[in-house]
């Protein structure tokens, strides 16, 4: 294994590295698999390679056993995630998305994600090219929305709220473009374009791409609606007289861990320094290439930026970024976050248009017996010339609404359940997708969120705190997609019907909560929360948030250094 006492990296690299190296810039044999109609699945390395093109192979886990007993192949289909930096899409384009979901997917729904984009679940292999071609027709793509690349770039929602918002959104798009894979594999395979170049090149990502997924945000204080502390690279806007003059740069956030593995831990993004605006792309590139070259390629559990920083030290990482970019970081400029979540209802923008923020339960846009959100949104899209803007909290903002369309849009929204009276608690809650489509799910999340919220609403009513809010989130496994580790009360799935209960995060999402009870049932969770909310309602200081209260009262120890405190 060792040569001259050095680890032979090539020999020790993970299978994921071998797959990338041998893929011919992400082509593999995907084209051959598409011609094979005996199975609905992708074979060998292609299972992983299609992720770089924005798709995941899944099967319906509710039907797995039944199909196994019938000796049938699992019901394979693909989830496809669109690239939509800042979450902005023309309302008219939405109609195509809506139509595709209805006509070509097994579930007929569209799922808004907490990274400002949408996913289709249940596309059969034979329909995949149609999906990519439809996206291309409306000037979208799914490139780089999954696997070891920079993912969909987040930006504080509603770019029309101020000139700063508009410009921040432009930066989110520029960063997304800069860090995209350059390979032409995507257009060749999915859009049937002829091979254009003889030799592909990946000047930033490199032939083996990044060691692991990489996440970026552009944020405008005081709104932390993007949950920046969960991301690898963050640009916090610093402005003067309505102009962005530069960014505070924070790196190394991430929320996943592995149950029982103390070498894995969540971590909050840390401050690197301030840069002036013209250095932005240079710095983005240098941070990414440093992580590309220094990140761990022998253990995927320790491959994200936060582990690289832990290994080499923040100062060394910073010096390397400065060396590569030729830019010296200045001292961090003062900034402050006071808000998270979305603010619902009507608002006027800088051009005197209106915007309407709608609550979408779990981000799931579908029609069923109780609601017709999908139909409602398509009716709005039909009469609206402006944009839909997807938020990092799985909601949607209809923007650029002229005064004379306001009433019509509101009427449709009310008729189809898109405007409803809901509690603050519900508005601020979140769950990941989990069952039935997520192959990694250990416990339910999306499908039990409403149940938990209704029970918690009753508990809060009982103790006269029903007007208050608590950031409550559920993730079906410790990958933590529901960002439970930035909540005041977070559940993380252990097995069917059982969760770890975390408390002690704060309202603005800059403190990681800690485990309060391990592996408990839904009933036990509610008994514990009834007790905690009762104590909070009786003993909190004026307007003290739930998370802060649990720390002040010593109910849970504060997580200061997550590497140690998260586990001990
Ligand atoms: Fe996630 C994997 C869904 C945001 C951490 N995530 C998955 C997969 C693709 C399962 C898989 O690998 O097969 C899930 C697909 C479920 C399905 O059926 O749709 C999945 N993640 C989601 C979404 C849809 C959750 C949602 O309800 O909104 C989010 C899609 C975002 C997007 O549009 O790109 C989503 N995932 C997150 C977040 C939150 C965030 O980014 O703000 C996290 C935690 C932050 C972080 O990255 O640390 C997150 N997802 C993971 C991980 C753990 C990564 C790690 O660092 O170890 C995995 C597993 C993996 O990558 O190996 C994962
Ligand atoms: Fe799936 Fe786990 Fe992510 Fe939930 S947290 S979507 S269960 S990977």
Write the SSE topology:
Blueprint: E1 2-3, E2 6-7, H1 9-12, H2 15-21, H3 30-35, H4 46-52, E3 55-59, H5 64-69, E4 76-81, E5 88-90, H6 91-104, E6 110-112, E7 118-123, H7 128-137, E8 154-155, H8 163-178, H9 185-190, E9 216-219, E10 233-240, E11 243-251, E12 270-276, H10 280-294, H11 305-312, H12 314-325, E13 345-348, E14 354-358, E15 364-365, H13 373-383, E16 387-390, E17 396-401, H14 406-415, H15 424-427, E18 430-431, H16 446-462, E19 472-475, E20 489-495, E21 498-503, E22 514-521, H17 522-539, H18 546-552, H19 562-565
Helix pairs in contact: 6-13, 10-12, 11-12, 13-14, 16-17
This protein binds siroheme and iron/sulfur cluster.
Siroheme is lined by residues 56, 58, 79, 81, 113-115, 117, 119, 145, 151-152, 213, 215, 227, 230, 254-256, 304, 394, 432-433, 437-440, 479-481, 483.
Describe the structure.
- The chain is α+β, with helices and mostly antiparallel strands.
- 32% of the residues lie in helices and 18% in strands.
- The protein contains 19 helices and 22 strands.
- The strands form five sheets. It has a five-stranded antiparallel beta sheet with strand order 3-4-7-6-15. Strands 5-16-17-14-13 form a five-stranded antiparallel beta sheet.
- A hairpin with a 5-residue loop joins strand 6 and strand 7 (118-123).
- Helix 11 (305-312) packs across helix 12 and helix 13 packs antiparallel against helix 14 (406-415).
- Siroheme is lined by residues 56, 58, 79, 81, 113-115, 117, 119, 145, 151-152, 213, 215, 227, 230, 254-256, 304, 394, 432-433, 437-440, 479-481, 483.
